[in-house]
Amino acid sequence: MKESFFKIISLIALIIPTKVLIRLSGKKIIYPFYHIVSDNPPPHIKHLYPVRNIKQFEKDLDFLEKHFSASGFPPKDKNNLFVLSFDDGLSEIYNTVAPILKKRKIPAIFFLNSAFVDNKNIFNNYVSSLKKENPDTDINEYLIKQKPYLTSRQISKLKTEGFTLGAHGVTHPLFSGIPEDEQIRQTEESIKFVTENFGETQKLFAFPFTDNGIKNSFFNNIFENKIADYTFGTAGIKDDVFERNIQRIPVEKYGLSAKRHIKTEYLLYIIKKISGKNFVNR
């Protein structure tokens, strides 16, 4: 139902000029994010969500660069900006995404799961996708041969090339489904992994799946104790009661182009702003 509603609204959003949507919303900085870009989606991904091919991704970037300027984090000014990020630390970041971004001089944040770096383990949902492809898949063999995740060497190279690194939990759990002390541990441990191993000075954390259902006490704890500088959710274009918890746009979610998806997020934000529902409340 939510996807159908989103796609219906998107037809209206498409006919409204992007600059009008930006002006009416007052939201000049957006945070689109992806997981992977590939012309041949790997088995551990292909049964989970739509995957952008290179041509589609380049077209997404064309739209973003037409209406916004690419920015690192934190954004330095109030002009129309986009801050790009990628979750899960997949090998395609190094092989496919980074070369495209370097050519266009677009910065990005790459969020990593500490338990999966160097292909030491794999996300449960990726196992499910693999088993749909081939029930007899040997996971250990797959990790060794296919190397779905970034290696430490590749991550270090990405850092030296100017990209920003962030944390995404140790094992990519749904945070609302684990106790708060485990939420804190997953956050702190994964941030320490990134800062201590790769020299990242910012302490950035993106929630696996979503930040929906996370209590105020969690945010108070990690910000007051300086465990994280900023955290990132996945609610689209929305304001948050915690200013240092930034909501990102899950561009891949419904398989729409960035142009269509982002313009729809803008229109929905404007509608919600009128009704006072543009905030993520906890």
CATH class division: Alpha Beta
Strand order of the largest sheet: 7-6-5-2-12
Secondary structure category: alpha/beta
Shape: globular
> Average pLDDT value?
96
CATH topology: TIM Barrel
Number of helices: 10
Regions with little confidence, pLDDT below 50 for 5+ residues = none
Radius of gyration: 18 Å
CATH architecture: Alpha-Beta Barrel
Walkthrough of the structure:
The chain is 42% helix and 13% strand. By secondary structure, it is an alpha/beta fold. The chain has one domain (27-248): Alpha-Beta Barrel (TIM Barrel), CATH 3.20.20.370. The strands form 4 sheets. Strands 7-6-5-2-12 form a 5-stranded parallel beta sheet. Helix 2 (18-25) packs parallel to helix 10. The longest helix is centred in the last third of the chain and has 19 residues, at 180-198. The chain is globular, with a radius of gyration of 18 Å. The two termini are 24 Å apart.
In summary, what is this structure?
It is built from 10 helices and 13 strands. The chain is an alpha/beta fold. The strands form 4 sheets. It has a 5-stranded parallel beta sheet with strand order 7-6-5-2-12.
Keywords:
TIM Barrel; 3-stranded parallel sheet; alpha/beta; 10 helices; 13% strand; 282 residues
Question: What does the secondary structure layout of this molecule look like, with pairings?
Answer:
Blueprint: H1 2-13, H2 18-25, E1 29-30, E2 32-34, H3 54-67, E3 69-70, E4 81-82, E5 84-86, H4 92-104, E6 108-112, H5 124-133, H6 139-146, H7 152-160, E7 164-167, H8 180-198, E8 204-206, H9 216-224, E9 230-233, E10 239-240, E11 245-247, E12 249-250, H10 258-274, E13 279-280
Parallel strand pairs: 1-4, 2-5, 2-12, 3-4, 5-6, 6-7, 8-9, 9-11, 10-13
